[in-house]
Design brief:
Strand content of chain B: 5-15%
Oligomer: heterodimer
Largest sheet of chain B: 7 strands, mixed
Radius of gyration of chain B: 22 Å
Strand content of chain A: 15-25%
CATH topology of chain A: Sufe protein. Chain: A
Order of helices and strands of chain B: EHHEHEHEHEHEHEEHEEHEHHEH
Order of helices and strands of chain A: HEEEHHHH
Distance between the termini of chain B: 33 Å
Structural class of chain B: alpha/beta
CATH class of chain A: Alpha Beta
CATH architecture of chain A: Alpha-Beta Complex
CATH class of the largest domain in chain B: Alpha Beta
Number of domains of chain A: 1
CATH architecture of the largest domain in chain B: 3-Layer(aba) Sandwich
């Protein structure tokens, strides 16, 4: 892939996801999440909240919405994460639990080393959401 | 797209008139100031004139001006140079917690070498605690370094009052020396040494519409310092290396112009500054001004917005052609938020959500009205997508 030089701080893909983030949870009130998770803390400057809807039969994520407090890389990472777990008919919960932060970074066209934790936090919030879903399912039974 | 530069405290463009004065020394008048023939003397004369001009603005002797390569170098030279020259007299240094890294890191280096350093606290508006200073001064204190005005929050320190405290403590002694970093103050505040009472003063060119890579250190002639760079006998043997006449001339021309425009610009910028602050605080909920409302540089605005992070705010504003900066951790290389905002006692989330706008010669009311149109909806949108609920 030919790399084009830009004056933007991060990769072109990060820029697109930062400026036009996908799957933002704009309307929490009217959103029925099957699982919800949070990661990070405001002292570090990054907090991520991820909500998922799960197809009970296939155990695949059919929707993923999020909100992030953080830098451009953090916002883009959560946006990309939400795309990755919902594309191609949705990711299985098992696969999503094992999703590696490196895979998110790769899809973003790379992140500066100092910003790797942004992708880790998004993944941590997703894990929380999946575990929250499992807990709720257990309670139903 | 409109391009609105509001980061004049980071650096300025070079004034076109200043650049014109520099050009001959980058082209035809390329002589080495140490050479004996006319081409060399031409360079020497230019440097001497520039030194005189700078000295005149400060109200000091030309031989008290050491021309350097940056504000950082000047501050390093002052702190390290004084400490090394007087280490037989004492091992204690006092600085404030909100100094520029050029001073703080110099102090830390001294600590590593066995010096003791006291870091003075500031109050919630950024003024150095003078009682703490009085308590910290002792027989072993060889240097006090307190900045004239802060680069992030623009708070102006009571330099003359501080110098009175130090002078009273000194009695008949030479030490401790008093150094002040005036990089942000130049062009906005008086630089007359007798009004400030300092023994050392750091200035640089890149904040006053002069060239980057230029600066000077005022050194009271009663003091000695150890040079950082040794070699030839340039700059009274205190800074070796062939002088750069273009940068030196650029620096002095820029300083002269800044002095000439100072009062008029201050008046204009103060009105613009207060206009923007008032409007932002009124239109954006849960926002605050950091620093002192009056004792602040006429061109400095530092705000915090709860619930959002500064880097994303800066990047969003960049998309609208607005160039500003933040004290957020996410823009630093060590992921810690601004030491200045932390010293103010700001909660960490407000340090992450800080935004600095610094105005300058080209800033107009129209520019600020454009910012006032863009900023509130951008903050609102980032808050809506933030995981933190206010």
């Amino acid at each position: 892939m030919k790399k084009t030089k830009t004056n933007w701080l991060y990769s072109q893909i990060v820029k697109e996801h930062f400026l036009n983030p996908k799957n933002v949870l704009w309307d929490e009130k009217n959103y029925q999440a099957d699982g919800k998770g949070m990661a990070g803390n405001p002292i570090c400057g990054d907090v991520m909240m991820v909500c998922i809807k799960v197809d009970l039969k296939t155990q695949k994520i059919k929707d993923c919405k999020w909100r992030t407090y953080g830098c451009g890389a953090a916002i883009a990472s959560t946006s990309m994460l939400s795309v990755m777990v919902t594309e191609k008919g949705g990711m299985t919960l098992k696969k999503a639990l094992n999703l590696k932060p490196q895979e998110i970074i790769k899809r973003l066209g790379g992140l500066p080393v100092l910003k790797f934790h942004c992708s880790v936090l998004g993944q941590a919030a997703l894990k929380e959401a999946i575990n929250d879903y499992f807990k709720k399912q257990k309670r139903k039974k | 797209m409109k391009q609105i530069y509001l980061d004049y405290a980071a650096t300025t463009y070079i004034d076109p008139g200043v650049l014109q004065k520099m050009l001959p020394y980058l082209t035809t008048a390329y002589g080495n100031a140490s050479s004996l023939y006319s081409l060399g003397r031409e360079a020497k004369t230019a440097i001497d004139m520039a030194r005189k001009d700078v000295a005149k603005i400060l109200g000091v002797l030309p031989q008290e001006i050491i021309l350097t390569g940056s504000g950082t170098e000047s501050a390093n030279l002052a702190i390290y140079g004084i400490a090394k020259a007087y280490q037989d007299k004492g091992d204690h240094v006092i600085v404030s917690k909100i100094e520029h890294k050029a001073v703080l890191e110099s102090a830390k280096r001294l600590e590593k070498e066995g010096f003791r350093v006291t870091y003075l606290d500031i109050d919630s508006q950024g003024i150095v605690n003078l009682n703490e200073l009085k308590k910290a001064l002792n027989k072993k204190t060889i240097l006090v370094s307190i900045m004239y005005a802060n680069n992030e929050i623009g708070t102006i320190q009571p330099i003359f009052e501080i110098s009175k405290i130090i002078t009273k403590f000194k009695k008949e002694n030479l030490l401790p020396a008093f150094h002040s970093d005036a990089c942000q103050a130049a062009g906005a505040l008086s630089l007359k040494i007798k009004d400030l009472g300092v023994d050392f003063l750091t200035l640089n060119g890149s904040k006053i519409y002069g060239p980057k890579g230029s600066g000077c250190l005022y050194k009271n002639q009663n003091f000695k310092i150890e040079p950082l760079i040794v070699g030839g006998s340039q700059e009274m043997g205190l800074r070796a290396g062939t002088e750069n006449p273009a940068l030196i001339v650029g620096f002095s021309e820029a300083l002269k112009l800044a002095e000439k425009l100072r009062k008029k610009e201050n008046w204009r910028l103060r009105i613009l500054r207060d206009y923007l602050i008032k409007k932002v605080l009124k239109t954006i909920p849960v926002s605050q001004l950091n620093g002192h409302p009056q004792k602040r540089l006429p061109h400095n605005i530092n705000l915090s917005f709860a619930g959002i992070e500064g880097e994303s705010l800066v990047l969003k504003l960049d998309q609208y052609g607005i160039s500003v900066s933040t004290g957020s951790a996410c823009t630093s290389t060590d992921l810690t938020p601004s030491h200045v905002l932390l010293a103010l006692g700001l909660p960490e989330d407000l340090t992450h959500g800080s935004l600095r706008l610094t105005l300058g010669r080209k800033t107009t009311k129209e520019d600020l009205d454009y910012v006032l149109k863009i900023l509130p909806p951008v903050v609102k949108k980032l808050r809506k997508m933030s995981a933190i609920r206010l």
